[in-house]
From TrEMBL:
Function as written in the Swiss-Prot or TrEMBL entry: Essential component of the signal peptidase complex (SPC) which catalyzes the cleavage of N-terminal signal sequences from nascent proteins as they are translocated into the lumen of the endoplasmic reticulum. Essential for the SPC catalytic activity, possibly by stabilizing and positioning the active center of the complex close to the lumenal surface. Essential for viability.
UniProt similarity note: Belongs to the SPCS3 family.
Keyword terms of this UniProt record: Endoplasmic reticulum, Membrane, Signal-anchor, Transmembrane, Transmembrane helix
InterPro entries for this protein: SPC3
Main location, first listed in the record: endoplasmic reticulum
Protein known as: Signal peptidase subunit 3
């Protein structure tokens, strides 16, 4: 009737159909799982110094110290592979309506790492404005996260800071 190869092919096709059906159900159900992440960012100190920057001439760099207290454990479920987390400074200038600068980022791969409590965190990347000056600039600081699932769509979210902080006048030394 049927040889061994035809039977193996039928079993394999059925197994793949069931597997893809389960993966589709997981991808559809994951966005509806409840989560309530929370984060609080407190800026401790901002310093602005003048620096000779490449060929543009003199620019102002900002150095930020902040405290980060976040509980992102609710974002982890059976379909979460990892989280990409970043702290951004967001501000407006006369020449640009939206400016976003990443100050710090991290990849979180387990639920235990998702409870973040860091004090006196320094910015990891250069914080320089395109206009070469931070005069009359007020910034708010936010925590952004991207949930990378095993199966399904990448989702993201953010926790915005309530307070806006004005940049201080520049100094010539970095503490």
């Amino acid at each position: 009737m049927y040889n061994l190869l035809q039977r193996a092919n039928s079993i394999f096709a059925f197994a793949m159909t069931v597997t893809f059906g389960v993966l589709a159900a997981i991808a559809i159900a994951t966005p509806f799982l409840p989560s309530s992440p929370s984060a609080q960012i407190t800026v401790k100190d901002i310093q602005v110094i003048s620096y000779e920057y490449m060929t543009q001439g003199e620019s102002e760099f900002a150095f930020v110290k902040l405290n980060l207290d976040a509980d992102l454990t609710s974002l982890f479920n059976w379909n979460t592979k990892q989280l990409f987390v970043s702290v951004l400074a967001e501000y407006e200038t006369n020449s640009h309506d939206i400016n976003q600068v990443i100050l710090w980022d991290s990849i979180i791969q387990s639920k235990e790492e998702a409870l973040i409590k860091v004090s006196e965190l320094h910015n990891e990347y250069n914080f320089v404005d395109i206009t070469t000056s931070f005069r009359q600039v007020n910034a708010s600081y936010s925590l952004y996260w991207d949930v990378m699932p095993y199966v399904g769509v990448l989702t993201s979210g953010q926790t915005k800071s309530n307070h806006v902080i004005k940049f201080p006048p520049r100094s010539n030394e970095y503490r």
